[in-house]
Design goal:
Strand order of the largest sheet: 1-7-6-5-4-2-3
Helix content: 25-40%
CATH class of the largest domain: Alpha Beta
Number of strands: 12
Number of domains: 2
CATH architecture of the largest domain: 3-Layer(aba) Sandwich
CATH superfamily of the largest domain: Type I PLP-dependent aspartate aminotransferase-like (Major domain)
Length: about 375
C-alpha cells in the first residue's frame, strides 16, 4: 500500500477540474444529459456514473476510492453516519427468519438495530462473549446469516480472534461484518484477514476535527454493488459533497494524527497505571490487558481510548473528579483533536447503581492532540480535589 499516494493523489484527476491542487466540492443535487440515450444508459450504472447525488457524486467518489484503497478493499461506500453504514451492512444480508450472532455490548446503536429494529421483522440474534471462539461455534444456528464483530469495542476493549471467526464463518457460508472504528483501517487490516464487510464511524479518527458525522463501508465490488443498489439508494443516508470534502482534507493528516495520539496516550496510560488513586487501567496494549498477545497479533495501532477505574468511595467522588478536569471535555464520541472523558456513571441511575452494566467508578478517556504534560497535570489536580 502506497499510503502517501492514496492520501494525496489517488482519485484526484486534477486535469478535470482546472488543475486545482485541492479537489472541488461538486455541490449539486443532479447532473444533466445531452440526449435520451445517454440518460437511458446511465440509469443501470448509477454507481459508476453521475445521475443524482443521492447515489454518486464526484467529490464523494474521490473519497470512496481513497478509503477503499486504505482498507485494501475493492470498493467502498460513504454514509451520513456510522450507524447508517452499520445498518446497511446488516440489513443487506438478512431477511425475515434469519439469525445474527453479535458480540455483547457493541456500539449502542448496533445493539438497538438488532434488538429493537430488526427484531420487529423476524430477524433474531444471539449476543455472545466474543473473546472465545467456542462461543461463536455454540451460537451459530442453521439460519445464521451474519456474524457481527466489534474488535475492540469502545469501552472495555474486548477483542475477538478475527482470523478464527472468519475461518468459521466461511465454513458455514456466513457473512462477517466488523466495526473497525477503534483501530481504523491503518491500525487493523480486517479485509486482509478475510472479513467480508468493514464498517467505520468516520466521525472519529477519519474526520479527526469533530466537525463531520459520517460512516464508511468497505467490501468487495459485488457486495458494494448490492448494498448501493438497495440499502444506500432506498434509505438515502448519503453524505453531502461538502462533508466528503472535509473528510478528504482530514485524510491528509491521518497518519500524523494517529502517531501523535498514540505517543501521548502511551505516556498518559503509564502515568495512570502507577497512580495510587487508580484501581485499574484497561488498554489493549497494556501489559496487564488479558488479551495482549491477540492485540499485538492483529492490531498495528491502539488508538487514544482507554478506560480507568478510579479509587472512589462513592459516585459523588467520581463526579468530583470528572467535574474538576479542565483540559478534558466531557462529551460523547472521540477521535478528534480534543481530549475527552465519558464517565460510566453519567448513564446510570444513581439510586440503582447495582443494576448498571458497568462499575460507577469507570471512566473512559480519549487522548487528543494536546501535550501529555498538560493532560497529566490536569488529571493530578482533579485527583487532589477528591480527597
Amino acid at each position: 500500500m502506497d499510503l502517501s499516494y492514496i492520501l494525496n493523489h489517488l482519485g484526484e484527476e486534477r486535469e478535470q477540474y482546472f488543475n486545482a491542487v485541492a479537489p472541488p466540492i461538486i455541490q449539486t443535487s443532479n447532473f444533466y444529459f445531452k440526449d435520451v440515450e445517454r440518460l437511458r444508459n446511465a440509469f443501470p450504472n448509477e454507481r459508476d456514473t453521475h445521475v443524482y447525488t443521492r447515489g454518486n457524486n464526484p467529490t464523494v467518489e474521490i473519497l470512496r476510492k481513497k478509503i477503499a484503497a486504505l482498507a485494501g478493499a475493492e470498493d467502498a461506500l460513504v454514509f451520513s453516519s456510522g450507524v447508517a453504514a452499520i445498518s446497511a451492512a446488516v440489513i443487506s444480508n438478512v431477511h425475515a427468519g434469519d439469525h445474527v450472532v453479535c458480540v455483547k455490548k457493541p456500539y449502542g446503536w448496533t445493539d438497538k438495530l438488532l434488538n429493537k429494529f430488526l427484531s420487529r421483522y423476524g430477524v433474531t440474534n444471539t449476543m455472545i462473549d466474543g473473546t472465545k471462539i467456542e462461543n461463536f461455534v455454540a451460537a451459530i444456528q442453521s439460519n445464521t446469516k451474519v456474524i457481527f464483530l466489534e474488535s475492540p469495542n469502545s469501552f472495555t476493549f474486548d477483542l475477538q480472534d478475527i482470523k478464527a471467526v472468519v475461518k468459521l464463518a466461511k465454513e458455514k457460508n456466513i457473512v462477517t461484518i466488523i466495526d473497525n472504528s477503534y483501530c481504523t483501517s491503518l491500525g487493523q487490516r480486517c479485509i486482509e484477514m478475510g472479513v467480508d464487510i468493514e464498517v467505520h464511524s468516520a466521525t472519529k479518527y477519519f474526520g479527526g476535527h469533530s466537525d463531520v458525522v459520517a460512516g464508511y463501508l468497505m467490501a468487495s465490488k459485488r457486495m458494494v454493488a448490492k448494498i448501493f443498489a438497495s440499502e444506500l439508494l432506498n434509505i438515502g443516508a448519503v453524505i453531502s459533497p461538502n462533508d466528503a470534502w472535509l473528510l478528504i482534507r482530514s485524510l491528509r493528516t491521518l497518519p500524523l494524527r494517529l502517531e501523535r495520539i498514540q505517543a501521548t496516550t502511551t505516556t498518559v496510560v503509564k502515568f495512570m497505571e502507577q497512580h495510587p488513586q487508580v484501581e485499574r487501567v484497561i488498554f489493549p496494549f497494556s501489559d496487564s490487558f488479558p488479551q495482549l498477545p491477540l492485540a499485538k497479533q492483529q492490531m498495528q495501532w491502539c488508538g487514544g481510548l482507554f478506560t480507568v477505574l478510579i479509587e472512589a468511595k462513592n459516585v459523588e467522588q467520581v463526579e468530583t473528579f470528572c467535574n474538576s478536569l479542565k483540559r478534558f471535555l466531557m462529551a460523547v464520541s472521540w477521535g478528534g483533536h480534543e481530549s475527552l472523558i465519558m464517565p460510566a456513571c453519567s448513564f446510570m441511575n444513581r439510586n440503582d447503581l447495582d443494576l448498571a452494566d458497568y462499575p460507577y467508578n469507570m471512566i473512559r478517556f480519549y487522548i487528543g492532540l494536546e501535550d501529555a504534560r498538560v493532560l497529566i497535570e490536569d488529571i493530578e489536580q482533579a485527583f487532589q480535589k477528591m480527597v
